[in-house]
Amino acid sequence: MAGYDEYAAAVRQLSARIREGERGAVAEAERRRALHAGVTQLGQRLAAQEQRLAQLAAAAGLPAVADPAPGTGSVPGVDTAPGAAPGSAVPPGSAVSPGSATGTGAVAGTGVDGDPAVVLAEAARLVDEVDRLGQQAEALAQRPVLLATWSPTARAVAVYVGCAAVGVLAMLVLLVANGIGAVGDVTAATLNCAGLPLISFVAGWLILGRWGRPALADTDPPRYAPLGFVICALLVPLSYCVTLLLFRFSR
Fold first, then answer.
1. Among 97, 124, 120, 100, CA closest to 108
2. Structure pTM?
3. What are phi and psi of 79, to 5 degrees?
4. Which of 21, 150, 173, 204 sits in a 20 to 30 Å window from 2, CA-based?
5. CA 118 from chain center: how many Å?
6. pLDDT tens profile 59-116
7. What pLDDT does 24 receive?
8. Burial letters for 167-206: b for 16+ Cβ neighbours within 10 Å, e otherwise?
9. Which residue has the higher pLDDT, 51 or 142?
10. Could you tell me how far CA 102 lies from the centroid of its own chain?
11. Rounded to an integer, what distance in angstroms lies between the CA atom of residue 51 and that of residue 48?
């Protein structure tokens, strides 16, 4: 009977190991399915990011994003070797420590553990970071280059006032030239009262159209032409008249 008891105990032990192996196989299959689903999801997110980057580059007039090399459609740092089971992720071109047949050793040169789940988590973190940076870049691209934090009205006023100020400086140069006889009275008066205001207005209008437009804008930015014309048409001639009065009273 002792031999029969030993035989029964060995059968029970073998049966327990078989059940344990079956449970391990089910858990491994589930882990691989989860990894495969994670890799697929990250691949889709990367494809969407690449498409959005191409759209942003085209809208901003920048060179198109270089396409990845053929056959590299997997998530960075996670690759599936030909013939490998789905989800058996192994970092491409990386070395796994000897004796680690399942790829759980440290990946050489990456600083990330070779466990596929760890590599996938790191890839997901990097994709999330790319999403965050992409949103920041898109928000910045919605702003114009010139005075990005200002409102459109304040930006237009600042630009037209600045151009009118440059026109006032040119007016002072004309007054000096008129004083030494290089420019006639009629020419100086015409330029100061009509030419310089018009030039200042056109310059401000062009500046707003060039640097006041966001990179991703589909339409021209508001240039507030009537407001700019009033600013330039009043500021330059008014400065000219005030300067003439000052010169007259200073004599």
1. 97
2. 0.56
3. -135, 155
4. 21
5. 28
6. 767 776 665 544 444 444 444 444 444 444 444 444 333 333 344 444 444 445 568 8
7. 87
8. bbebbeebbeebeeeebeeeebbebbeebbbebbbebbbe
9. 51
10. 39
11. 5
Among residues 235, 167, 175, the alpha carbon closest in space to that of 196 is found at 167
Q: What is the C-alpha separation between 43 and 62, in angstroms, rounded?
A: 25
Find tokens 């599936």 and name the residue: 80
**pLDDT at site 108:** 41
Euclidean distance between CA atoms 59 and 219, whole angstroms: 12
Domain borders along the chain are 152-250
- Distance CA(106)–CA(100), nearest Å, equals 9
Q: What's the chain look like in SS3?
A: CHHHHHHHHHHHHHHHHHHHHHHHHHHHHHHHHHHHHHHHHHHHHHHHHHHHHHHHHHHHCCCCCCCCCCCCCCCCCCEECCCCCCCCEECCCCCCCCCCCCCCCECCCCCCECCHHHHHHHHHHHHHHHHHHHHHHHHHHCCCCCCCCCCHHHHHHHHHHHHHHHHHHHHHHHHHHHHCCCCCHHHHHHHHHHHHHHHHHHHHHHHHHHHCCCCCCCCCCCCCHHHHHHHHHHHHHHHHHHHHHHHHHHC
Give the residue from 240, 107, 250 showing the smallest Cα distance to 164.
Answer: 240
∠ CA 216-133-77, rounded to 5°: 125
Two tokens, residue 155: 């930006």
